Amino acid sequence: MVEYLIFLAISTAIFALFALGLNLQWGFTGLINFGHIAFMTLGAYTTVLLSLKGVPLLISAVAGAIVAAFLGLIIGFATLRLREDYLAIVTIGTGELIRLVVNNQELPVGDTWISGAFGVQSYRIPLSTEPNLLFVKFVTIGVLTLLAAVTFFSLWRWIRITQISRTTDLGKRITNKQEFASRLGVAIVLAVLAAAIYISGVIGLYNYNPKAGLMLVLLLVLAFVYWRLEILVRSPWGRILKAIREDEEIPKALGKNVFWYKLQSLMLGGAIAGIAGAFFAWQLGAIYPDNFQPQITFDTWIMVILGGSGNNVGTILGAVIFFAYDALTREVLPRIVPLDEARLGAFRIMVIGLFLMVLMIWRPQGILGKKEELTLGK
């Protein structure tokens, strides 16, 4: 059970990180990216190929993020001066192009060259060896404890801000009351999940499971990226991105270089996806071109839409809901629905599609999104 919870925590955190990059591009800037998987592919392969050459893992992951950002630069220069639909077409084509090139190209694995179709195996992952000193184990557990404490405090503060505004601004009492109730429910769910992950992580780190070490590093990176993105989107830079999303002619009239801001958003979102690709490769332990199907991009779109575009907490919530649904239906549905494996998979997709249709009618901005910032209606 502990190992399964650690696996779910890693999977959810990887795609929460991946979705944060997409949310920056689309939720905050309005860039339609249907090939987000291309950035993850480049990040994953760059990281593992460099690590097999003896490059330290941290430098390999940073290099993967830089290569993914460079792809965003190339795509941006080619499409951002054109209409939005061109960006959507180019990105989905780029994602498939990179996957097919990797599949048919020989890759430098160590001192030899092998076909990309055979995949890449036997590379290092962070904290893969058990610490020799008990002190080191307690240090890692202490870091996880500190991260859990910061998470609980942040959730409490997130609720408290809404409660204060509800009691001080009578003109918005009803709206804020509804927002407070929704935030309270979300915070309780996230707090319970954080507690379960913390307990599983402590057990995994003490008995030392390499995946628990990977989970700790991943959660630290996710927390850092989320923290920096929250600062960025509330800064003047982030406000310009939102203005571009709503009507790019307005920031143009104010003398802002809209093309440059779009390019920055595409590159930064791509770099975040590249980092997610490194963790995706480390989780799998062996990567193949078929691990990077276009379906992953559209699953990530579901997460962003579900939680609420233009909201980083909503994006993380969307990833949590998506993987909770995936895990529950994978375990429970076979016991109550008499279908074979192929039909059961289609049924699970149909159910989440129906859920999204109902959500788009009832709350088109997503669970935590703001209707005035909805980009679907542009």
What features would you highlight for this structure?
single chain, mainly alpha, ABC transporter involved in vitamin B12 uptake, BtuC, 2 domains, two-stranded antiparallel sheet, 75% helix, 3% strand, globular
Overall radius of gyration: 21 Å
Q: Give me the strand/helix succession.
A: HHHHEEEHHHHHHEHHH
Q: On the 0-100 scale, what is the average pLDDT?
A: 86
Straight-line N-to-C gap: 45 Å
Helical region count? 13
Helix coverage percent? over 70%
| Outline type | globular
What is the strand content? Answer: under 5%
Query: What structural category characterises the helix and strand content?
Result: mainly alpha
At the fold tier of CATH, the topology name of the largest domain is ABC transporter involved in vitamin B12 uptake, BtuC
Q: What's the CATH architecture of the largest domain?
A: Orthogonal Bundle
Uncertain segments are 166-174
Number of domains: 2
Strand order of the largest sheet: 1-2
- Which CATH C-level class of the largest domain is it? Mainly Alpha
Largest sheet: 2 strands, antiparallel
Total beta-strand segments: 4
